[in-house]
C-alpha cells in the first residue's frame, strides 16, 4: 500500500492519520455499529477527517470537521462524491440551502458522464445499471488513489501508460482491473504486470460482472484528468 500507512492492524479497518477511519462489518446492524463507532473516543485517536462504515450494501460516513453525516446505498456513492472531496484536498462549498459541491469537480464528473452517454447507446435498464455501477467503481478508484488505498497515482498512471491514446482498449482495461480488484492475490491467474500491485477490495462493489462502457480519446483523457493527484498532469503527452 502506497501513501499514508494503515495505522490499524485489523483486516477490517483502514486508518489513515488525519484522513479516514474506515470500518467494514459483516454481521449486525450497520446503523448500530456506526453509532457506536462515532461515539467511541478511540476512533478519534488519529484525528480522522472522515469516519466511514459499510457492510457493502449501505455506506455511512461522518465528516468530523463539518459534523455532517450521510447514509447511502453503496452503489449510489457516485451521487455523493462531493461529500468526500476534502480527502482529495478540496473543501466543500456550503451554500445557504445546505447543499455541498465543489463546482469544478462536479462539472468535471457531469461532463464525463454525458460524454460517455454520447459514446454509448444505452437501450435497457440493465445497461443503465451497468453504467451507474461503473461510475461507482470509477469514483472508488479515484478515491482510493487519493487516499493511499492504491499506490500513489497507480490507477490513472496505468491508464496513461497501458491503454491506447484513442481509448479503444480502455473497455478491456477496466474489465481486467475490476476482476483483479475482486480477486485475492493468491487466487489471481497471471494478471498483467501493471495490475499486480492493486489490492484485493473485500466486499461486493466489484463482485458483479459488468460490461464497462466504450471510450474514445476524449473520454479517456477526461478520466485521467479526473484524478486529483498532481502526477496526473504529467500524462498530458499521452493524450
Describe this structure in words.
The chain is α+β, with helices and mostly antiparallel strands and 239 residues long. It has one domain (13-238). The protein is built from 6 helices and 7 strands, in the order ββαβββββααααα. It is globular and about 50 Å long. The two termini are 28 Å apart. The relative contact order is 0.13.
Care to count the β-strands?
A: 7
Question: How would you describe the oligomerization state of the chains in this entry?
Answer: single chain
The level of helicity is 25-40%
The percent range for strand residues is 5-15%
Question: What best-fitting shape do the alpha-carbon axes yield?
Answer: globular
Mean pLDDT: 83
Work out the radius of gyration.
18 Å
Low-confidence stretches: 93-102, 228-239
In total, how many domains does the architecture comprise? Answer: 1
What string, H for helix and E for strand, traces the elements in order? EEHEEEEEHHHHH
Category by helix and strand content: alpha+beta
The termini sit apart by: 28 Å
Biggest sheet: strands, sense, closure?
5 strands, mixed
Query: Helix tally?
Result: 6
How would you write the strand order of the largest sheet?
Answer: 1-2-3-4-5
Amino acid at each position: 500500500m502506497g501513501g499514508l500507512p494503515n495505522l490499524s492492524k485489523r483486516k477490517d479497518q483502514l486508518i489513515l492519520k488525519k484522513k479516514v477511519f474506515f470500518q467494514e462489518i459483516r454481521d449486525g446492524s450497520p446503523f448500530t455499529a456506526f453509532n457506536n463507532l462515532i461515539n467511541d473516543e478511540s476512533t478519534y485517536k488519529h484525528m480522522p477527517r472522515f469516519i466511514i462504515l459499510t457492510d457493502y450494501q449501505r455506506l455511512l460516513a461522518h465528516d468530523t470537521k463539518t459534523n455532517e453525516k450521510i447514509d447511502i446505498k453503496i452503489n449510489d456513492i457516485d451521487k455523493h462524491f462531493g461529500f468526500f472531496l476534502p480527502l482529495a484536498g478540496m473543501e466543500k462549498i456550503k451554500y445557504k440551502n445546505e447543499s455541498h459541491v465543489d463546482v469544478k469537480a462536479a462539472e468535471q464528473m457531469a461532463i464525463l458522464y454525458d460524454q460517455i452517454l454520447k459514446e454509448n447507446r444505452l437501450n435497457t435498464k440493465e445497461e443503465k445499471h451497468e453504467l451507474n455501477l461503473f461510475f461507482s467503481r470509477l469514483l472508488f478508484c479515484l478515491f482510493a488513489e487519493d487516499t493511499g488505498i492504491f499506490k500513489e497515482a497507480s490507477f490513472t498512471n496505468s491508464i496513461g501508460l497501458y491503454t491506447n491514446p484513442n481509448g479503444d482498449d480502455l473497455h478491456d482495461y477496466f474489465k481486467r482491473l475490476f476482476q483483479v480488484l475482486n480477486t485475492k492475490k493468491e487466487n489471481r491467474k497471471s494478471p498483467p504486470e501493471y495490475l499486480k500491485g492493486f489490492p484485493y477490495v473485500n466486499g461486493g462493489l466489484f463482485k458483479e460482472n459488468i460490461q464497462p462502457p466504450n471510450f474514445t480519446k476524449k473520454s479517456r483523457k477526461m478520466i485521467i484528468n479526473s484524478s486529483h493527484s498532481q502526477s496526473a498532469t504529467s500524462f498530458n503527452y499521452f493524450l
